[in-house]
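Contributing new records

If you add data, match the layout below exactly. Sequence lines come first and carry their own label; structure lines follow with theirs. Keep one chain per record. Anything else will be rejected by the validation script.
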Amino acid sequence: MTITMHSTPGSSGYLDLYPERKMSFFKNPFILGLAAVAGIGGLLFGYDTGVISGALLYIKDDFEQVRNSSFLQETIVSMAIAGAIVGAAVGGWANDFFGRKKATLFADVIFALGAILMAAAPDPYVLILGRLLVGLGVGVASVTAPVYIAEASPSEIRGSLVSTNVLMITAGQFLSYLVNLAFTEVPGTWRWMLGVSGVPAVVQFVCMLFLPESPRWLFIKNRKNEAVDVLSKIYDLARLEDEVDFLTAQSEQDRQKRNNVKFWHVFRSKEIRLAFLVGGGLLFFQQFTGINTVMYYSPTIVQMAGFHANQLALLLSLIVAGMNAAGTVLGIYLIDHAGRKKLALCSLAGVIVSVVLLALAFFKQSTSSSEVYGWIAVVGLALYIGFFSPGMGPVPWTVNSEIYPEEYRGVCGGMSATVCWVSNLIVSETFLSIADGIGIASTFLILGGIAVVAFLFVILYVPETKGLTFDEVEVIWKERAWGKNPNPNTQRLLEEGSHS
């Protein structure tokens, strides 16, 4: 059976022919529920990044050796990221071998065990071990959730649905600050803050037991009847037949390709190498423009700005986290309307302005006793989040979920997530030390310089993938690699994307 690109289900040509089959974001409760449950992995990620920033203030009060060592503080924060690096690397393989559902269940079990260990930690070193386990769970989830959502999503709303995972990350960060404030007066403050993180993992584990496997993965594993049953809950009958016919035609070819794919093949294929450059590059710049520096250390940064009380620092950080969640909601709307590339560029432009404002505020504060500069720094933090969250928050994860061919989606997703976590580790492990060495103002100027490079990277290398099917995205890399495009309809789509 031959299916031409313009008639591929979900493509722009297909939806022009059958506009009544186009899906809207709120049309199907099943796919929304699937995205929400899978997105709890993002909630775990967000809660973990946010909760440690507040818990660290009280861990220092309980453990003198932590209070006297910036390195130990950085290690407590960043050990979860070290675990996530391993989890992301393993997660790509687990996704392909066991499936998206079982990989998620595994991540939940590991995360819950880590949360229990952290809550009961008698010393900083057991706490660090608990952080490592939590990181393993988060790393696997960071690979699995975007792919699981993307493979079950209609292409016309794929960006919005994948972005719900990022919304859950920001919601988790906001929730963590609420929990931090709630437990500030409770005995064992930080133990409650860290232990509560196991609850969402248990909730996701239970909910995932009632959700199906990814239909694309089921097709690859020759479990067509199960895949059709899942697709029937997503599409109406007319489009369902087309989707099943297309996936049936593609599955055998994809299965043969997948059996031959190895880690090093990513670098042998020019098309896949270009795709990984974009996917890994976006996640690299997401971290090195400082987002998790702000989220991990925002109460500490607020204290550096002159607001020394723990509760006030947490309250101001809660406002920052609230803006992060609100900005991500805006990003969910814009990513399938404005497009990925334009959204990323606007986001980075705002980040550059914000970090320069932060640098100036901290520089002026170092030479003045006025509280005004402290408030300017808080405004700079809020602006940074306001610009970052709609764009550079969801765009890298969305692009990574859609730019790799089926047979490379697991391995490349794992590799890109590993790039993310390695970058995250470097930034979080060095931020306080660099700030101590060269000053907080100069540290933010470095982040601003990296954001300028990221802006140029997006202009030069990132394609617009809004509204394209997975197969149409593959054509982008073939065209870039070999300088030709075999399908005129996709050429039209690419030209429209470049002007959007």
